[in-house]
Write a structure and sequence with these properties.
Elements lengths: L19 H71 L4 H26 L6 H7 L5
Helix pairs in contact: 1-2
Length: about 140
């Protein structure tokens, strides 16, 4: 007596009309696909880790360069002020007056930079983007 299709024991593959050889082939293909996906995920993760490490190293180098640049700019500014005071004293200006003028130049420079930074402040915070994303907050 022949078994009818779909009458085999559960898990044998016969109950769904799938032959055991086809089921093994499908299982192998599924494992291969899952292995390929896992390998791709590992590759992407390794690339992301390498890029993150490179990014951190680059940012560290940039921060060090920024600090060194800041120190050089401050040193240059101090040298310019000292040269200005020295020239003023050489041309007959009293030392106290030359130092007061140098201090005034510094204060004026700070005020100009403060006003300039206040004019730039409106560009910080993605105000236009927030208005586009949340139009009800206009």
């Amino acid at each position: 007596m022949q078994e009818a299709e779909g009458a085999g024991p559960p898990g044998s593959g016969i109950e769904q009309g799938v032959k055991p050889a086809a089921e093994d082939s499908l299982r192998l293909e599924t494992r291969a696909a899952a292995g390929a996906v896992a390998a791709h995920i590992r590759s992407v993760a390794a690339t992301a880790r390498t890029e993150a490490e490179l990014s951190v190293a680059s940012m560290t180098a940039m921060a060090a360069a920024a600090v060194i640049s800041l120190l050089l700019v401050v040193s240059a500014w101090l040298c310019l002020i000292a040269a200005g005071v020295w020239l003023a004293v050489e041309y007959g200006l009293p030392t106290g007056a030359a130092l007061l003028i140098a201090g005034g130049v510094n204060v004026v420079a700070v005020l100009v930079l403060l006003l300039w930074s206040k004019s730039l402040l409106r560009n910080v915070g993605f105000a236009r983007t927030r208005q586009l994303v949340f139009p009800e907050t206009r």
